[in-house]
Write a structure and sequence with these properties.
Blueprint lengths: L19 H11 L5 H27 L8 H30 L9 H30 L1 H21 L17 H51 L3 E3 L2 E4 L4 E3 L1 H6 L2 H49 L4 E4 L2 E6 L3 E6 L1 H6 L2 H61 L3 H22 L5 H25 L1
Antiparallel strand pairs: 1-2, 2-3, 4-5, 5-6
Amino acid sequence: MAKGKKTVTIDVTQGEVSDEKSMALVSYVSDKKLPDITTEDIIATVGPVFRDIEMWKQKVSEIVVTSSEDSEAMKLAGEARKVILKIRTGLKKQIDEKKLQIKTDRIDPIKREYDGWGDMFDFIEGMLKGVEKDLRDKEEYAKNLLKKEQDELRETRRILAEPFRTFMPPMVDIALLSQEDFDKALDTAKLAFEGDKLRREKEQKEALEREEENSKLKIINSRINLLSSMNFKFEDGDYFYGGDSIKVSSAMIKEMSVEDFNTYVESVESQIREIEKENKGKEERERVQAAEAADKKRKIIMDRISKIDCAKIEKDGLYLDIYGIGKEFLIDYESIYGFTDEAATEYLHKTNLSTSKKILDLEKKKEEAEQLRLERLEIARKAKEDAERLALVKDEADRKAAMSDKNKLKAIADDVHELKKEINNNYSLTSDSGRTIFSRVINDLKLIVEFIDSKIK
C-alpha cells in the first residue's frame, strides 16, 4: 500500500477474516479508492458469495456425467445451477437496492460509489455465470450429446444427398429420419435426378438442333438482307436486279456454302458496277435532255409573258397587276406553255385588249372622280366665302349696334358717302333723262351727308 493509505480489514464471516480469498476481495475493493464505509459495505455484502465461489467450483467438478443414461447426475447439476442462479439474482437485487440509495446526479465521490457497486456486481456475476455454464453443460449433457450425434449424422447424410439435393424432400431435417426413410428418400432423389438428367440431355439436344436451324436461318436472312441492300427485288420466289438482268434463286440462297456464295456475290457486284456505270451514263444524258427541255420551256413561257401588259409573275401563276385595281389571276404557266403559237398570239391579243380597256375605264373613272372632287371643292369654297361674308356683315351690324347715336349717324353718313362714290364710279348713263336723274341722286346723297354732318357737330 502507498504511504499514508489506510489498510482496511473486513470480517466476511462471523469472525476475523484471514483466508486468501477474502484478502483478495479486500484488495480488489480497496483499489477502487471508495470511501471506507462504502468499501466495508461492499465487502460485507458480496464477501460471503465471493468466499464460497471456489467451494462451488469444487463441488461442480465433483459432478461427473459420462453417459446420457446418467439422469441422477444431470438432475443434480440442474438443481445446483438453480441454486447458483438464485444466489446471483439475490445478490443483484441487494446491489440494486444499494445503488437506488445513491443519487447519480451528484459530483464525485457519490458517482464513484454508485459505479463501485456496479463494477463489483459485474465482477462477481462473471464468476457465477461461469459456474452456471458448467452446471448447464452437465445438466443438458444428454441433450447436447443427442444434438452432436444428430449434427454428425446430418452432415454425413448431407454429403450423400448433396448431388441429389434438388430432389430431396423439402423442409425435412434429414437427421431426424430413420435410416430406412432416409434410404428411400435418397433412392427416390437418385431416380428423379437420372430422369431430370435425361430430360436435360434431350432438351440440350433439341436446343442444339434449334440453334443449328437458327444459324441456317440467320445465314439465309443475312444473304437476303445483303441482296436487298444491293437493290435486288423479290419476285416469284427469286431475287432480281435491274429487271431480269441478274437473277439469284432461292435454292442458291439456301444451299450454297458460305465460300461459294461469297464468291458468287463478288461476281454479282462486278456485274452491278457495270450496269450502274451504264445506267449512270444514261441518267446523265436524260438529265441533260431534261435540262435543255426545261430551259426551252422556260424561255417560251417567259417570252409569252413578256408580251402581256401589266403581267406579274407569282409562284402559282401569272397575275394582271394594274395600279388602282389590284391583282387578278390570269393563267398558270403550264397553260401558257401548252398554247400553240397561233393560240398564244390570240390569247395575248385578247388579254392586252382587255387590259387596255380596263386601264381606259380606270382613267375615265379617275377623271370623273377628279372632276367631282373639283366641283365639291368649288362648292365648299363658295360656301366658305358666303359664310365669311355673312360673318363680316354680322360683325359690322353688331359693331354698329354697339355705337352711340352720334357714331351711328356718322356711320350712316360714311355709308351714304361710300354708296355715292360706288354709284359714281360704277354707273355711266347716256340719255339726257338718265343723266339728269343720276345727277339728282348723286346731289341728294351729297346733301344727306352734309345734313347729317351739320347735325352731329
